[in-house]
Amino acid sequence: MIKSLHDTTTLHNGVKMPWFGLGVYKVEDGQEVINSIKSAIKAGYRSIDTAAIYKNEEGVGQAVKEAGIPREQLFITSKVWNSDQGYESTIAAFHESLKKLDLDYLDLYLIHWPVKETYKETWKAMETLYKEGKVKAIGVSNFHIHHLEDLMEEAEIIPMVNQVEYHPRLTQKELLSFCQNNNIQLEAWSPLARGRFFDDPILIELSQKYEKTAAQIILRWDLQTGVVTIPKSVHEHRIIENANIFDFELSNEDIAKIDSLNQNERVGSDPDNFHFDF
């Protein structure tokens, strides 16, 4: 049982990654992202997930400096954006992210989306960065099974992480099983689906049973299904509340109830049909 915010999963290369972290998608650079991260670190969070396209890496770096926690105790993730994919441009984008974050290394670097024409070259660049020790772990985001299979045909290093949209309306069981069978850690973005279905009768019933919010029930379900989760919030009380999920355990029957909510419904784009490269 995962019992605290400091509990970790071990990636296939031996790196320890926190099961629970803070996402900062659409969190404004400057004081908003700094305050959000400092609140999270104060509450015990050690994992922060950003990306070049979020345009808040400077603020993330500033918060890390101001938080007063040794760098080696933190787990910082960023991602290469679609228009920067390709071998040389990925190397350049990585160093740009590192400069903005004002860090010596990243804990995890991800390909943000599977840009068909370039993701294999991008992966070669990721492998180079990893071999050079600039990043502790490398992975992908928004990759379907067929993307992973295609990448792994030529890859020297299997991705350590696949970060995807994952919540009770999009349980992605086949992808989860594939990743587990290949020692790829699945990680959930938008784990709460922006609160769209908190009023679902099953979630209401489980909230009452466990005396937890719908969000807490979902986040606990993530962990118990073996999925790393990074809910986003800019409000200190919500950041603390989201992490208050280590004092209870869902029964197998209740996990099955949550699984039954799946409708293959996305709040974001389908990785086979996305159109953004700005």
Automatic annotation (TrEMBL):
Q: Superkingdom of this entry's organism?
A: Bacteria
Q: Which InterPro entries match?
A: AKR, AKR5G, Aldo/ket_reductase_CS, NAD(P)_OxRdtase_dom_sf, NADP_OxRdtase_dom
Domain named NADP-dependent oxidoreductase: residues: 29-262
Q: Which SUPFAM superfamilies match?
A: NAD(P)-linked oxidoreductase
One of its Pfam families is Aldo_ket_red
Which keywords label this protein?
NADP, Oxidoreductase
- The membrane spanning regions, by residue number, are none
PROSITE patterns membership: ALDOKETO_REDUCTASE_1 (PS00798), ALDOKETO_REDUCTASE_2 (PS00062), ALDOKETO_REDUCTASE_3 (PS00063)
- Give the family, as the similarity comment puts it: Belongs to the aldo/keto reductase family.
Q: What is the protein name stated in its UniProt record?
A: Aldo/keto reductase
Species per Swiss-Prot/TrEMBL record? Metabacillus fastidiosus
